[in-house]
Amino acid sequence: MEWAMAETLKQPKFMKKAQVELAEIIGKGILIEEADVSRLPYLQCIIKETLRMHPSVPLLLPRRTEQDVELCDYIIPKGSQVLVNVWAIGRDSTFWDDPLVFKPERICPGFPLALRMVSVILGSLLNSFNWKLEADIEPKDLDMEEKFGITLGKAHPLRAIPFSL
Questions:
Q1: Which pLDDT value is given to residue 80?
Q2: pTM tops 0.90
Q3: What is the CA radius of gyration of the chain?
Q4: Cα gap 44→112, rounded to integer Å
């Protein structure tokens, strides 16, 4: 809470934008309730950006590697204790443009909507059709290779055939 207030006070344009959203959706000066939160995407962006820059727990709980792991040209031997520095990740220019700059707009406010839409679409597809693979492919032989990039996609597109229930 303190960090979010500090960031919006440091850059009043973000406070103003959140206040405009609150006034339009909730009404000026009205206390918000938990049920209102999902209707306030910009406020959620401010909170998530605050947590990126100022995580309440900068180091995650220690873990032990179950096998030797190669990561960024380093070998982490089996049984090593590993700590994830969330604070450093949130400030790493490898992952973030201008990582030391508070930018609520960098957080995708559409993620909760996207998650709901994927549920609606996938549920509708599964509920409306049976699906099968192309004739020459067995389920055990389905290519599950990943293609790494900005998003993680299938290396080879899925070809599925719908048929009536």
A1: 95
A2: no
A3: 22
A4: 11
